[in-house]
Design goal:
single chain; 26kDa_periplasmic_antigen; UCP029033
Length: 244
Amino acid sequence: MNKNIIAVAVGALGFVLGLAFLGNAIKNRNKSENTISVTGLGTKQFTSDLITWSGSFSKNNSDLKAAYDELAIDRKMINDYLVSKGIKQGEIVFSSVDIQKQFRSYNDSNGNYVQGEFSGYNLTQKVSIESKEVVKIENLSRNITEIINRGIEFTSSAPSYFYTKLATVKQEMIASATKDAKERAEKIAENSGSSLGNLKKATMGVIQITEPNSNEDYSYGGTFNTSSKEKEANITIKLEYEVN
């Protein structure tokens, strides 16, 4: 008899506890659904303060030492030219020399490629500059024909532009995007007759740096434009608030 009473009591207690847990689950579920998710945008335009530029020059000769000597003459002429244009010696970097053997090649009567006899050496060297004098290096890259006119076989690359204070820009954009998202959430809550509660979650997107007013695509891992001196950075912040 006592065992039956105890069993009934235990069962009743379990039933009550089950109802309590179910009630809390429903309450928490409803609470979790009573949220607002918004995305804010932070944007900043700025001008690059660092530029890199490079070019390459080469010499061909059947004698390796003669090719080295000729390349060294060109290297000195290029270095002197750059210094004469106001480039600091410490900003001028010459790479190691790349050596390629050249062969006379032809297609035989069956159309097969045939590598013929050795015809000489091709030596190539690269010169690069990194400077904060953006305008000066820009002008230099545009007038590089002055080097070519001195009889040097020189190929110039397009400059690349960077910004050294990007960390500060990112912080400003995060603050702007967060403010934008919160204002959107407050407006939504106000229009629905509610008020914002606690912030539950914040998710930051990747930074996208593009040329202003361009049609560059954003990428999943972030875009970083280096071809434009003027840049526009964007970042998104997603906030999730409880609603009272």
